[in-house]
Specification:
The structure is a single chain. The protein has helices at residues 3-26, 35-70, 83-121, 127-148. It is mainly alpha-helical.
C-alpha cells in the first residue's frame, strides 16, 4: 500500500469516525470538556477503520484480479492499446473497484454497529461512556471482521 493510499484511507476513516462526534456534540450536548476524549476515540477508531479498509481492499483486489486473469476475452488491439497498457488499466480499475467496495462495506457495518450499540445496547449508560464504547467497539468489530472473514 502506498503512502498516498494510506493517507486517503485514513482521511476517509477520520471523516466516518467524526460523524459520531458531531452526533454526540449536537444532539446529546456533550460539552467541550470532552474534546480530549473525542480526539483519542476518533484517532483510535480511525486507525482501526484504516486497517479494515486495507484488509478488505487487499482481499478484494486479489479475488477480482484472479478472476480477471482467467478471462482474457478483451482484445487489446480492438481498443488500440498494447497488452501492457491494457493490463495496467485493468489493474487500476480493479484496485478502484476493490477500494470502493472496502469503503462501502466497512462504513456500512461501522454505522450500523454504532447505531445499534449507542441507541439500543448501551442506551442506559452515561452519554460519554456510551460514545466511547459505541465508537471503539464498532471500529474494533469492523477491523476484526475485516481481518478474519475470507
Amino acid at each position: 500500500m502506498s503512502s498516498g493510499q494510506a493517507m486517503f484511507y485514513f482521511l476517509a476513516a477520520v471523516f466516518v469516525s467524526a460523524v459520531p462526534v458531531y452526533l454526540y456534540w449536537t444532539v446529546f450536548d456533550l460539552t467541550q470538556a470532552f474534546v480530549p476524549f473525542y480526539a483519542v476515540v476518533t484517532a483510535v477508531s480511525s486507525t482501526l477503520l484504516t486497517m479494515a479498509y486495507k484488509n478488505v481492499t487487499y482481499r478484494e483486489n486479489a479475488r477480482l484480479s484472479s478472476h480477471r486473469k482467467d478471462t482474457d476475452s478483451v482484445n487489446h488491439k480492438k481498443l488500440g492499446l498494447s497488452k501492457a497498457q491494457l493490463d495496467f488499466h485493468v489493474k487500476e480499475a480493479t484496485l478502484k473497484e476493490a477500494t470502493t467496495w472496502s469503503f462501502f462495506i466497512n462504513n456500512l457495518v461501522f454505522v450500523l454497529l454504532f447505531v445499534f450499540l449507542s441507541f439500543y445496547m448501551l442506551k442506559d449508560l452515561q452519554t460519554n461512556y456510551n460514545y466511547i464504547l459505541s465508537t471503539v467497539v464498532s471500529a474494533t468489530l469492523v477491523w476484526q471482521m475485516s481481518s478474519t472473514i475470507a
